[in-house]
Amino acid sequence: xxxxxxxxxxxxxxxxxxxxxxxxxxxxxxxxxxxxxxxxxxxxxxxxxxxxxxxxxxxxxxxxxxxxxxxxxxxxxxxxxxxxxxxxxxxxxxxxxxxxxxxxxxxxxxxxxxxxxxxxxxxxxxxxxxxxxxxxxxxxxxxxxxxxxxxxxxxxxxxxxxxxxxxxxxxxxxxxxxxxxxxxxxxxxxxxxxxxxxxxxxxxxxxxxxxxxxxxxxxxxxxxxxxxxxxxxxxxxxxxxxxxxxxxxxxxxxxxxxxxxxxxxxxxxxxxxxxxxxxxxxxxxxxxxxxxxxxxxxxxxxxxxxxxxxxxxxxx
Length: 316
Ligand code: FES
Description:
With about 325 residues, this protein is α/β, with parallel strands linked by helices. Helix content is about 15%, strand content about 30%. The chain folds into three domains: about 5-100, Elongation Factor Tu (Ef-tu), domain 3; about 110-220, 3-Layer(aba) Sandwich (Rossmann fold), CATH 3.40.50.80; about 235-315, Ubiquitin-like (UB roll), CATH 3.10.20.
């Protein structure tokens, strides 16, 4: 399916709730895994078939394993849910080497803001800073309750706890954490935020008066891949000479794979550029975050984009 895949073994898996789990992966031969930096993620081929990105929670110095925090997106296409529901210790998974779009830059001070599973890359950052003896950081970690708090033992451990404010909102809007006192007066802090979309949008709104370079977000679901009003359409594959129908509930990528095409992908959410395909003709509904307007005339990201009307002709 996707080249450069690495086989790894699930050596530990623990459930936090029905929707959250923590997973430890090692190389099949026990050798150190590829290097990564704090904030990095891997793409894993899920049991459902799709590739999904998962952040790494461990200190980048510890390469004998990758530690993942995973949330089952119950309203998604089932890929993350298949990781939580069906993967078990002893299974072998295929992953791509880590990449990092959420790099920890050198700064005098850091404010980390995590919501739910968003703690995962931020925990890696905190672990790195602790190891380096850097005490110039604070972590605000919001979750619904202690029972639903992923990596609770880690953030309440004696080494990290002094830097952590743990807030439980019971899922009630009236109990959401008030970040404004931390954002009101801009200073030299770099703010790293990873969490549910509403939280990140709030932080974006509150940080509008900060230098853009000091505010960092990690968002694995930047586009809605499928929409309620999506319709089926046809693609003509010019190299293969085949015409295929793309159902309303599948992407072009998924349909072509089910027909046996060996296609590269990584994020499958329109943000990495891996699945870029030459668009020969057709009126495309571009949903990616990668292509410029000019590039959209001749390229399409087949993991997310569709036809507005009529047929798309692709160079496949
Ligand atoms: S796989 Fe990343 S943009 Fe399509």
